[in-house]
Automatic annotation (TrEMBL):
Keyword Protease: no
Protein name: Peptidase S8/S53 domain-containing protein
UniProt organism field: Camellia sinensis (Tea plant)
GO biological process, one term: proteolysis
Domain of life: Eukaryota
A Gene Ontology molecular function term of the record: serine-type endopeptidase activity
Protein family: Belongs to the peptidase S8 family.
Keyword terms, alphabetized: Signal
Transmembrane segments: none
Length: 140
């Protein structure tokens, strides 16, 4: 098991909210995380010369907060149908690539700009469209 404490938190959340899907529970854990430890120090990663502040790809979602995850405001949900357009990169004949999609409903956002230079001061605006719900919308 690669991350037993996260699995334990997910199990406790499922027990507290049996009506929530596993995707919603994953969303709750990922969107309420922190990039600092409970000591309020930044999460660090090891580089060749010591420690430095960890980049998102090095620390994953970050430091999980079970109490926040139990009382969330926004949640992301995905069904098997949301993953089907993404499967067009496989050689499966079951899925068509006529309408490929990069809009997987996943509670994590990352944008990589490979043509940027240090001298580039232009403003960059990315419009991310995601499906989300307020938690109280699910409970009437």
């Amino acid at each position: 098991m690669p991350c037993p404490h996260a699995f334990g938190i997910a199990t406790l959340l499922k027990r507290a909210h049996p009506e929530r899907s596993l995707t919603v529970i994953q969303s709750a854990v990922m969107t309420t995380r922190s990039s600092t430890y409970n000591t309020l120090n930044q999460i660090k990663e090891i580089n060749g010369m010591g420690f430095e502040i960890a980049m998102p790809l090095a620390m994953g979602s970050g430091h999980v907060d079970p109490n926040k995850a139990n009382d969330l405001g926004l949640l992301y949900d995905a069904t098997a149908q949301d993953y089907e357009p993404i499967l067009t990169i496989t050689s499966s004949s079951r899925y068509s690539c006529l309408n490929p999609s990069s809009d997987l409903n996943y509670p994590s956002f990352i944008v990589l700009y490979t043509n940027m230079t240090e001298d580039d001061n232009s403003d960059i605006l990315e419009d991310c469209h995601k499906c989300w719900s307020r938690c109280d919308d699910l409970h009437g």
